[in-house]
Write a structure and sequence with these properties.
5-stranded mixed β-barrel; globular; 3 domains; 9 helices; alpha/beta; UCP012641; single chain
Length: about 350
């Protein structure tokens, strides 16, 4: 993620904040400018931007910003919309009368906005789903389990459903351990499910890519239900780490794509953050290359250099975490087979499949 600074005091501000931690000026994300804006309040509904590029332009806070503090995005004052580009995508929220529901909703929206930031940076910003038959629109439903009925996180026809209880840290960590996963986050859920959504778009817009897709991920036309049943009954193949990014990726080509897609997004945003931070890491001169940047990773032409940087960065992140007695920050192995899948994704994102 890019680094942002307060237009009033020039201190760093963060993407999810609603107030500068240094000078306490109100701030918010302006999607049309792809920037965190600093504002002077003329009234509760009219905020004047202080940033040079759009100074004195008037904005209003998203309805969910001003009423529930679960959002921090701004809308041009001239717009007829009450909800920002992010909140328009959410069509169902948890029942706010339920205990902790608003906390869960806030955490879900924070993860969603971080996913959407990267989608916008990659020119893949989804639009709200207008009708059930809208092939390109996207909507989110955040549901709480009720009356003993579970909520299954998943995607179908442009609707992504998330189990809101996943926003409970204890529940999510318990589920991660019980399912034998080495990584489970809200942001990971958003990125994984977006993979299913974007695959549907790719299949419709450029069906000729599916032959190449099958070379890397397998034939997605096989029965999904039977593949999942087989996966949960027998588990992953013993050599799964040589060909897949995770055990779940072994269940079906759709899931292999979604898991690999999520990791591609992890790589892009994390390296973009390192790029804007000016980070550099010296390699050991033999097995570990030095990490340096000759271009922003997002939209970068040299994907081999991007992969080299990622290997060096994650090796050192894991080493630092271990020094603190923590689990690995990136507990995954990128084999050449997995890298080929990532190369396929990067190649066709650059070809503007989704733009």
């Amino acid at each position: 993620m890019k680094y942002f600074e307060c237009a009033q005091c020039q201190q760093q501000i963060f993407f999810l904040d609603s107030r500068c931690q240094h000078c306490h000026a109100p701030i918010g994300f302006v999607a049309t400018e792809r920037d965190m804006g600093t504002f002077q309040k003329k009234s509760e509904t009219v905020w004047q931007a202080q940033n040079t590029a759009y100074k004195n332009h008037d904005y209003k806070p998203c309805y969910n910003y001003s009423h529930y503090q679960v959002c921090n995005w701004m809308i041009p004052l001239s717009s007829d919309e009450d909800y920002c580009e992010s909140c328009q995508l959410t069509t169902v929220i948890p029942n706010l009368e339920m205990q902790d529901a608003i906390v869960y909703w806030r955490r879900l929206e924070e993860a969603k906005r971080r996913f959407l930031y990267l989608a916008q940076r990659m020119y893949m910003m989804p639009q709200p789903k207008k009708t059930p038959d809208d092939r390109f629109g996207l909507s989110y439903e955040f549901l709480m389990p009720m009356d003993g009925k579970p909520v299954l996180t998943g995607h179908a026809n442009g609707v992504i459903t998330l189990n809101a209880i996943e926003a409970d840290v204890v529940y999510r960590e318990t589920t991660r351990v019980n399912m034998g996963e080495n990584y489970r986050t809200l942001l990971g859920h958003f990125r994984h499910e977006s993979g299913h959504y974007y695959l549907n778009i790719m299949q419709f817009l450029q069906p000729e890519l599916m032959d190449e897709f099958r070379q890397y991920f397998g034939d997605e036309r096989q029965s999904y239900s039977e593949a999942l049943k087989r996966h949960y009954e027998y588990g992953a193949p013993k050599d799964w780490q040589e060909r897949f990014i995770s055990t779940y990726a072994t269940s079906h080509p759709w899931e292999d794509w979604a898991e690999t897609w999520a990791h591609y997004l992890h790589i892009m945003e994390t390296l973009e953050t390192a790029y804007y931070a000016g980070l550099r890491v010296d390699g050991n001169g033999t097995t570990l290359a030095s990490m340096s940047f000759k271009e922003c990773p997002i939209g970068g032409q040299d994907f081999e250099h991007i992969l080299e940087n990622w290997i060096t960065l994650t090796f050192n992140l894991n080493a630092l975490n271990r020094s603190m007695g923590l689990e690995d920050a990136y507990p995954f192995k990128l084999t050449e087979t997995v890298k080929d899948k990532l190369r396929f994704i990067h190649r066709h994102v650059l070809d503007k499949v989704f733009k």
